[in-house]
Amino acid sequence: MSLTHSERPLYEVKAGLFKGLAHPLRIRLLELLADGTERSVAELQRSTGMEPSHLSQHLSVLRRHRLVSSDRRASHVYYRITAPEVAEFLAVARRLLAAVLVSDAEQFGRISELPELRP
């Protein structure tokens, strides 16, 4: 299936969302914000143990892909997810992860069915 010229930009935006999610620390940050509570950069740093410069880079990626927004108050910056759908997406992804892990565990349990190997 090839994309028409008019379809391509929509799929590029969609792919950008997935790029924004394509790092374990960004997923962790989103999970920390998924309850809808604002968190300061200091709180996020304490929760993740990330270096300030790395945290800033990951938050910048999430902002660029519009998954989080920020608000500066005095000398503190606070972050929040941009929409409840972000939290819903994380919940669906977690259910999918659980299904994959169960499947992997079942496969691992069948390893004894393989023929014996002699070194």
Q: What is shown here, in short?
A:
This protein is mostly helical.
Give structural attributes.
WH-like_DNA-bd_sf, extended, 5 helices, 119 residues, three-stranded antiparallel β-sheet, Transcriptional regulator, transcription
Determine Rg (CA atoms, Å). 19 Å
Question: Mean pLDDT across all residues, rounded?
Answer: 90
- Please give the alpha-carbon distance between the first and last residues: 47 Å
Q: What is the string of SSEs from the N terminus onward?
A: HHEHHEEH
- Extended strand count: 3
Strand order of the largest sheet: 1-3-2
**Count of runs of 4 or more consecutive helical residues:** 5
- Tell the overall outline: extended
Largest sheet: 3 strands, antiparallel
Oligomer: single chain
Low-confidence stretches: none
Residues in β-strands, percent: 5-15%
How helix-rich are the residues, as a percent range?
55-70%
Pairing-aware structural class of the strands and helices?
A: mainly alpha
Your description of this structure?
The protein is mainly alpha-helical. The protein has five helices and three strands, in the order H-H-E-H-H-E-E-H. It is extended. The model has no long low-confidence stretch (mean pLDDT 90). This is Transcriptional regulator. It holds the Pfam family HTH_5. It comes from Pseudolysinimonas yzui. GO terms for molecular function: DNA binding; DNA-binding transcription factor activity.
Tell me the layout of helices and strands.
Elements: H1 8-21, H2 24-33, E1 39-40, H3 41-48, H4 52-64, E2 68-73, E3 76-81, H5 84-109
